[in-house]
Amino acid sequence: MGAPTGHRILEAAEADPEATEAARKLFMGPVDFVKGVVALDGLPAPDRPEVCFAGRSNVGKSSLINALTNRKGLARASNTPGRTQEINFFALGGLDEAGAPQGPGYLVDLPGYGYAEAPKAKVAAWQSLIRAYLAGRVTLSRVFVLIDARHGVKPADHALMDELDRAAVVFQAVLTKADKPKKAERAGLVPRVAADLSRHPAAYPELIVTSSETGEGIPLLRATIGSLMDR
User: What digits encode the pLDDT tens for the residues 163-216?
Assistant: First the structure.
């Protein structure tokens, strides 16, 4: 599952208008919380595609999911690192009256890696769960690795990417909080992130730049996810 070594910034203008509109309708429709998983035997049945969001603690995973679905409280956002301590599943298309998913796939919010305000034993347990999920989930279509635009790729990010390389799990980097750096800082950071990704064979060769605050890149990311749900 290798990827070309050249990485480029995926521009919004490159998205297919029909695919973008179809993805907008999908994400504006029902999206329901399914469950929080604390052990592999609690995972939903692997009967539909799913994409997951991974990143350092407080990188903005929950905020990004809320922006994608245009909902303020679907995923719990917090300024406290390590608040998300389960693998949280959300059903695109919602749930039926019996609580069964009726849409094309799942969005999955992973616990953050790196620093977290939680007991070390608990952090170790959920990190082990993340690794097992990423390496063995057969319906996982893509991992979106979130990178804070204020800080770029950190050693903890490379460590996760190394694990995904070894497991041959395709991942795509998404810059979050792109509205935070100054224009000149951002201009230098984005090419550096693309260069960092080139050392990882499992990295998808397109980088998406987003801001949950301004909406930058959100339609493009929706369209990317929508294309993965069609598989």
Answer: 999 999 999 999 999 999 998 888 888 889 989 999 999 999 999 999 999 999
pLDDT, one tens digit per residue, over 74-123 is 886 544 444 457 899 999 999 999 999 999 999 999 988 764 555 666 66
pTM of the model: 0.89
User: Phi, psi (5° rounding) for residue 48?
Assistant: -160, 160
d(CA 28, CA 31): 8
Give the integer Cα–Cα distance in Å for 28 and 219. 11
Structure tokens at 188: 């230098």
CA dihedral 33, 35, 36, 39 (to 10 degrees): -150
State CA 43 to chain mean position distance: 18
Handedness of CA 116, 117, 119, 125 (dihedral sign): negative
Beta strand residue intervals within the chain, DSSP E: 8-9, 31-37, 50-55, 87-92, 105-109, 140-148, 171-176, 206-209
